[in-house]
């Protein structure tokens, strides 16, 4: 599978606490939904037939030159889709009221494919490899076509770990104290079902940057 882009909106639920920089630990549940684009699965097939077309004999040296007919068939199949997934995460934050804090946890998501489709590109070429010094007239043949098929809806899901760092943008003004910028890594196992084709399970590491605003 190729590179993907994930956009996520979540709401965090945590116990209301008064700000205390000595507090070392807090727990948070995050619920939301994610839109994932760039879901692509590609398959390629190629077959070549080489057939002796003619034999040329040099009248000067007696050397034989072989002329082969080459027939090549190519199929390039590409599945694409977007996905909408529901997400649920649990996070544990260290030093939650400090300017810099670390967090970690785990999560799950589950969803369906949107607008799944498969494109098939077909091409056929027929040519010869005649020696340059003995040109042979041969009309080459080239054919190509493209078809698009709509696929049935598939399901997808993932399980992952979360590790990240959080930066609070201010310490004095109330607005900036509540606004956070985070960066996190998610090692994950991702599952995708293609009803007319196959099921795929992949491992990946997702990098994610986010903004967070707290209301308590």
Describe the structure.
By secondary structure, the chain is an all-beta fold. It has one domain. It has 1 helix and 8 strands; from the N terminus they run ββββββαββ. It has one helix at residues 174-178, and strands spanning 5-13, 25-57, 64-94, 100-128, 141-150, 155-168, 179-193, 199-213. The mean pLDDT is 85.
Summarize the structure.
The protein has 216 residues and is an all-beta fold. The chain contains 1 helix and 8 strands; from the N terminus they run ββββββαββ.
Secondary-structure-based class equals: mainly beta
Per DSSP, the total helix count is: 1
Shape verdict: elongated
Number of strands: 8
Q: What's the structural domain tally?
A: 1
Element order: H for helix, E for strand: EEEEEEHEE
Helix content: under 10%
How far from one another are the termini?
A: 41 Å
Please compute the radius of gyration using only Cα atoms: 29 Å
Largest sheet: 8 strands, antiparallel
Task: List unreliable stretches of 5+ residues.
Answer: none
Strand content: over 45%
Give the integer mean of the pLDDT values.
85
């Amino acid at each position: 599978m190729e590179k993907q882009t994930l956009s996520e909106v979540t709401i965090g639920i945590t116990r209301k606490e008064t700000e205390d920089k000595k507090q070392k630990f807090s727990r948070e549940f995050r619920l939301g939904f994610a839109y994932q684009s760039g879901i692509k699965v590609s398959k390629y097939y190629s077959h070549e037939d080489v057939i002796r077309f003619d034999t040329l004999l040099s009248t000067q040296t007696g050397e034989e030159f072989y002329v082969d007919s080459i027939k090549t068939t190519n199929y390039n199949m590409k599945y694409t889709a977007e996905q909408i997934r529901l997400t649920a995460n649990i996070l544990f934050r260290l030093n939650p009221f400090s300017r810099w804090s670390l967090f970690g946890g785990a999560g799950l998501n589950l969803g369906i494919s949107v607008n799944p489709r498969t494109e098939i590109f077909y091409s056929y070429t027929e040519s010869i490899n005649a020696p340059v010094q003995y040109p042979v007239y041969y009309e080459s043949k080239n054919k190509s076509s493209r078809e698009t098929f709509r696929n049935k809806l598939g399901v997808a899901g993932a399980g992952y770990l979360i590790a990240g760092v959080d930066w609070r943008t201010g310490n004095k003004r109330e607005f900036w104290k509540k606004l956070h910028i985070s960066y996190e890594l998610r090692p994950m196992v991702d599952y995708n079902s293609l009803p007319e084709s196959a099921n795929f399970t992949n491992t990946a590491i997702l990098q994610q940057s986010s903004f967070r605003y707290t209301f308590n």
